[in-house]
Amino acid sequence: MGQLTLFGGLLVLVSTLTDYVSAQSSCPGTGNERFQLKLGNGYRYSKLATGLRSPRHMAVDTEGNLLVAEAGGGTVRRFVLEDQGDIVCAQSNTQIISGQATNHGIVLSADGKTLFTSNLATVKAYDYNAATGQVGQGKDIVTGMSVTGGHPTRTVTTSKWNPDTILVARGSLGNIDAPTTDQAVARSIIKSFSISKGLQTPLDYARDGEVLAWGLRNIVGVTEDPVFGGIWSVENQMDQVHINGRDIHNDNPAERLSYHGVLNDTENRYKGLNYGYPSCVPAWDPENVGINGLLVGSLFKPDGVPEVPDGECANRMTGRLHFPAHTAPLDIKFNSNGTAAYIAFHGSWNRNPADGYRVMRVDFGPDGQPVQPVTSKTAQVPVFENSQMANCPMSCFRPAGLAFDQKGRLFVSSDTSGDIYVIYGA
């Protein structure tokens, strides 16, 4: 029989305690497992690599090799993979790009022949040969993003439905970035750029490109649904929120999964919408906010943010699903048939007790939308997580990046611990 179980403020339905099975299988040289990890029903895992320098986002090339952005070195590492029994291991492991090429973002073009990386200032493009691992000279295609302070990630995503497009997300300068009420500031925003134009002449982030969505505080994961072509993002919302002088930050605001439509849809009604930040944030625990009629995901105005007219928050776009406060989703990837999206929750730094530090699944229906309603608190299905979080954030599994290969294996990076895991059964 099923039972509702509480995971850090989130109710999820699990069938029995056997849904979580501690299991470990490691590739040679990866050492003993340091963390007590547990799995959702039907999954198993192995450790592929350890000792990396803050691995973040990842990509799998057309030959099945794994490419990893190492934020700690600004480098890209290439793992040539081979099956060893019922797990996958690295046949070789080499650095293919250096020189502070990336601090987070990495993605391949739709044809797999161009590799893109991002750092604070630029998005770079490299000719890439998947068979040999040869990488050409890097070329800046988007520039003008460097600032002092603020969120450092510059998430990059390409489109198989619109192959000349690259999406670049840029977060806020601070917790409450008041100037972002002006779209021209070009922060807390997702913009699309023409790859071919950028290869001819570098494009300026603020001046060029098109706005896909704005009013999103810190977008760290963006992906495309492989079946319908819809663009989805996961966002880290505001910290230290108060309302009417009362501290409500422990359980508000919600983190957010947002839908941005299909890039090549000329009538995309989601294109260019404002999602509220910095003036309006989504509720996770409406009762704690204390506003009558507020639901999960409803936008409200906290203390200390730029003023908006009464009722204006209700006119801004909100997310398609919402997640517990401060769980910090850093990446999202769909399985090949679009029936599920997997999300890496990096974990909280300012919540008591700590929450996050897990990979979860959101199920999607035949219409290309989540099966759960906007107000759901049970949309997440447990996949892979720490069994206890007393040592988090610094001494635990802390997922940052996700990547599927052609065999349906899900690669997960843990940046704090420097590990790469593989989940089977996703």
TrEMBL record:
Pfam families: TrAA12. InterPro entries: 6-blade_b-propeller_TolB-like (IPR011042), Beta-prop_PDH (IPR054539), Quinoprot_gluc/sorb_DH_b-prop (IPR011041), SMP-30/CGR1_Lactonase (IPR051262). The lineage of its organism: Eukaryota, Fungi, Dikarya, Ascomycota, Pezizomycotina. It comes from Corynascus novoguineensis. Keywords: Signal. Residues 38-424 form the Pyrroloquinoline quinone-dependent pyranose dehydrogenase beta-propeller domain. This is Soluble quino protein glucose/sorbosone dehydrogenase. The keyword Signal applies. Residues 1-23 form the signal peptide. The keyword Transport does not apply.
